[in-house]
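go over this:
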Amino acid sequence: MAAPEEPELSQAQTEKLLQFQDLTGLESMDQCRRTLEQHNWNIEAAVQDRLNEQEGVPSVFNPPPSRPLQVNTADHRVYSYIVSRPQPRGLLGWSYYLIMLPFRFTYYTLLDIFRLALRFIRPDPRGRVTDPVGDVVSFIHSFEEKYGQAHPVFYQGTYSQALNDAKRELRYLLVYLHGDDHQDTDEFCRSTLCTEEVITFLNTRMLFWACSTSKPEGYRVSQALRENTYPFLAMIMLKDRKMTVVGRLEGLIQPEDLINQLTFIMDANQTYLMSERLEREERNQTQVLRQQQDEAYLASLRADQEKERKKREEQEQKRQEEEKVRQSALAEERRRRTLEEEKERKSECLPPEPPADDPESVKIVFKLPNDTRVERRFLFGQSLTVIHDFLFSLKETPEKFQIVTNFPRRVLPCLPTEEQPNPPTLKEAGLSRSEVLFVQDLTDD
């Protein structure tokens, strides 16, 4: 049994298909078409998922995966800078340190034991990421409530989205993992992260993404980056076509030191970004050239299709106009015959004209729109409808008209209405034995 033929593509779908092939480099048109159909012909979503598939980066168009995020952290050339806590100074400092050492050791040991036991009893709720954007936004709100509005611009999106934006824009991405329970977190946020020089440096040089490790999204990122202590910062960039961690900063770092270390990391990896930019520019130029060739072909194809379409439209329009003229002539002929038949019927149904010496007779002179005059006698007791029917039966009378008195000027109610189903008689209408009435043409109205 033969396989069913695929439906033909529209012009817009054909253009999207060629554009998708240019952007992704796929040679198989069938594969390009299947991918676009899976994304309902949304070319942005299709291209993004194709790039994610090539690079191993989670898609921003699909729910975040449960597996750890795929960022290259195995590069042995990663720059690592760890700030150790300052050692106690003097006799008093060492005495305080030695006295508190057993208490700190006991506290952290019991805390680790408690967490380990709790993990066996109840799975860590941070293991399931259900609302990554909500986790990031919630952290930003809690950060602003505690440390104020003066802080670097946080990326308000998921970690995957931040990676994709940094990759697309060829920018550095600085990731900050916030440890709520760590003793150095509060001082780092107040004395380093929220200082004016750090804010200016981060806002102008890179994207900045942050989240608390108490949130599922932050915990998932910490599992991927494998930090050792807090505060933790990781510099990520596109390197060898992969989003790679190129620098790690851990511990309580001072503002000037932080800026110096980040500048060093950026300078050391600037050549990779320049290489990526050049390579991307070459790809773009190749795509532009191919796109121009495709556009020229499509323009020629569209021109031929447009000529054929206009020819069909002109033929169809000519046929419709001829049909319209024919139908209009038929309709006019039917209307004319119907009107003549109605005039004859009205004429046959008119009562006879009363004699001139009848005391109940009324002589009426009608002035028609074409300036002709018609004279006829009626009876006082007859309805105004008789006058209307008489005028309607005349060939000179327009199809639609109304009868108007001269002085005082008023329109005679000759036809029945909802308010007056029975028109008045000539006497009730106030007509005298001799009247001059005017026929007003209403055909245009």
Notes: The first strand starts at residue 79 and ends at 82.
